[in-house]
Amino acid sequence: LTVLNAGRRYLKAEDLSGKVFVTSGLGGMSGAQAKAAVIAGCVGVIAEVDEAALLKRHKQGWLMEISNNLDHCIARLRDARKNKIALSLGYHGNVVDLWERLVCELDTTGELLVDLGSDQTSCHNPFSGGYYPVQLGFEEAKQLLSTNPGKFRTLVQESLKRHVAAINRLADKGMFFWDYGNAFLLEAQRAGADVEKRGANKTEFRYPSYVQHIMG
């Protein structure tokens, strides 16, 4: 319902075939995102750093395909988008790499490959394993978290700034992003990322919340 309502409200579209939804998180509650994309009829690309979560969702049939290769992900996204095929593709890697690759595609081809975007990393708990920084691999990041939590925190905040910068670039070209109630925008703001709404007070963000703005 969230994906469908986002399409209706922000794309003015009842039919989401050929539309692309990019997000992250396939553990816990976020595991339903892959299923939602296919039910809504769009192309869903969901990044996840933990391979165990990806394999679980694939085994359940909630996730149709898995890849750790961004070139392959972009090729599959383009094909499914062009042919209006419903697809849930799990990218085994950091979502910041995925967002930055989409910016690279925009810069090199002029093509905006994503219509809808969100995030379901556990940003309510970003410094204890809820969000993994793009600068490190999953196992390396876990080790740093246990040995040097202060450094881990710094890398998370740097990663959040890159995360938001890529989203902002795509949103400026017409991609619609929303907060999924996971404290992503709040923690990004605390990290110094550019998420504040222009001309508004400090408590307002430039992107909507799915609770107030999409689901009502």
From TrEMBL:
Residues 2-214 form the Urocanase Rossmann-like domain. GO terms for molecular function: urocanate hydratase activity. It holds the Pfam family Urocanase. InterPro entries: Urocanase-like, Urocanase_central_sf, Urocanase_Rossmann-like, Urocanase_sf. SUPFAM superfamilies: Urocanase. GO terms for biological process: L-histidine catabolic process. This is HUTU hydratase. The gene is Uroc1.
